[in-house]
Amino acid sequence: MSDAAIDPRYLELFPQWLRSLGEDAAAVGEAVAAGEADDATRALVSGLNYIFKSLDLIPDGIDDIGFLDDAFVLRVACAQAGAARAEVRQGAVQRLGDDARAVGDFLGPDYARLDAYVRGLRKGAARGRTVEEILADAGVRTEFLQEVKAWAQGYQVPTFTRDPKTLVKMKAFLGAKLAG
User: What is the structure's pLDDT at 4?
Assistant: First the structure.
């Protein structure tokens, strides 16, 4: 297998993930709305809450790759949710969780650090809301899910240059950010 940094399949796959990110977030939001306050839902909320973090792994304004970290985190969070509760392994959550294997193939040894980072998001906050507050307070959860829905509807698909250098840049950013 060729090095993931130049593997052309990612030049086709990642733009697809960017195109579907809004729909994916909305679908995960629906799973959160139907979920109970358990580890699986906690994982899904942390993946969605990441979208609203002002300091994420790759700033959203960076051409080509600014939203790929959001797509990666959402997929890893879905994989974690599926591992926590088998019943969530259906529909979009299943598909996104399955996509986490491609994230792992792309990142290689850095995937374990991304997985740990996503687990750590359960303790963090975005827009002044922690995952626990979203799960514990019905009003906060409703407001959060409305924001997810609005974000998903307003999401503008960014460009993605199908150039192996884009993949190298992505790996370099994530490798540097996850190293600490």
Answer: 47
